[in-house]
Amino acid sequence: MGTVVSFSLREAESAIDGAPAPEPAAEAALERAEAKLRWVDDVFSTYKTESPVSRLRRGEIELDAAPPEVAEVLELCRRVKDASDGWFDPWSMPGGLDPTGLVKGWAAERALDELKKAGVPAAMINAGGDITAYGRPAPGQPWRIGIRHPLAEDRLLLMVELDGPGTIATSGTYERGEHLIDPNTGEPAHGLLSATVVGIDLAFADALATALFVSGGKLLERVSRLAGYHGFTVSGDGVVRATRGLPVGLKVAA
Amino acid sequence: MNRSPIVIAATVAGLALTLGFRPHATGLTSASTAGLTTGKANVSGAQTVVGSDQALAGGLGDIQVKVTAANGKIVSVGMAKMNLHGPQSQQISNSVIPQLEQQTMASNGGPIHGVSGATYTSKAYATSLQAALDQLKGGSNAALATSHGNGSVLQPQGGGERD
Fold first, then answer.
1. What is the dihedral of CA B30, B34, B35, B39, to 10 degrees?
2. What ipTM was assigned to the predicted interfaces of this complex?
3. Does residue A197 contact residue A168 with C-beta atoms inside 8 Å?
4. Residue A207: CB partners within 8 Å, gap ≥ 6?
5. What was the pLDDT predicted at A41?
6. Distance (Å, rounded) from C-alpha A137 to C-alpha A124?
7. Around Cβ A16, how many Cβ atoms within 10 Å?
8. Chains A & B: contacts with CB separation below 8 Å
9. Which of A98, A126, A190, B132 has the fewest Cβ atoms within 10 angstroms?
């Protein structure tokens, strides 16, 4: 199953009379962003049997025969593996090498790059629940991001405001079941309702949120020591625990 | 790959574009208001930012908190004034869009621009709050793109994923 990526773009104002910039520029930027997402999918999908990553997984090709972005992503994976004390480990997945937990966020960042390059003054991308944004939605206004309540699709649990660039990633099993694998056991992780990481780069935040979730929250202290990243977890008993700077111990309606 | 045409609808606050890039975008046409309700929530009272080993008073239904971050750094935390509907947590079964508008207007005077959560499927997106935001008439959110069906990397960590 795929997911849905939502784009939110802010128009540039005309220097002449304050009128919005022509739409075609934003449309072209969106097309490039979309093309980037499709390209990433073609290269990194573990579901497409002939994707470079699938061929790499089967040992049919070496890393240097894949597009250089694959090595780039695997290097990011290695860094997150280190930063997460091994709780994020694409090399320990049951089906073989699987960088998917980082690629979605990385893909969203690359799509956002296309919008920046095209001169879009502010934009937000929501890749299936993981968000990256830059600029401001309106002068002086932050991006206001709700965090979904893990037990109710129609409720928000928290609000996070991003004043300028920032990212938010949430992992949980409430949408797709127990698909998040503990690299230490090879078994699905459970114990938390959700884990969210707020930070600078969505590739890292996405992978860290996965790691935080599968760690059952044990990674929270580690996340609190990462410069530029914050996180919180919602456990099955409805308690929210957060890194310093975020409120903790909030009781959630169960 | 096939793709559906780009649909453009300009709004006051921004561009509204629907980008369908799935060969069989079955979920999108129904991505409106089906089955979605917006809940009310309670504010538990004043609170302060506390350290990582302390607990705040627990409470009454949902507690909503506002966190402000700049360049990835949290700069302030406070209650989001979203919960102006009443003391009891309660479901409302009217159309989601007026409800969400009501909720967003009540959220400290500013709109909600996005919703973060566990990765939804294309199907589940249809009833998500993000979908409702994307559909808000005159809203500033807009473009949605579906990945195609099988083979998307736009998925959670997938080693053990069962579709």
1. 110
2. 0.86
3. yes
4. A76, A77, A80, A84, A88, A101, A102, A105
5. 92
6. 9
7. 6
8. 389
9. A190
Range of the domain at A174: 5-251
pLDDT in 10s for each residue of chain B, 163 residues: 333 322 222 222 222 222 222 222 222 222 222 222 222 222 222 222 222 222 222 222 333 444 555 544 444 444 333 332 222 222 222 233 344 444 444 444 456 788 898 888 777 887 777 877 776 643 334 333 333 333 233 333 222 233 3
Kindly list the residues from chain B whose CB atom is less than 8 angstroms away from the CB atom of residue A229.
72
Report whether B135 contacts B31 (CB < 8 A): yes
B50 in contact with A, Cβ within 8 Å: yes
- Interface check B43 vs A, CB under 8 A: no
Do A219 and A87 form a contact (C-beta atoms < 8 A)? yes
Domain locations in chain B as residue ranges: 1-38+115-148
pTM of the model: 0.71
Q: How many domains does chain A have?
A: 1
Question: What phi and psi, each to the nearest 5 degrees, are found at residue A159?
Answer: -115, 135
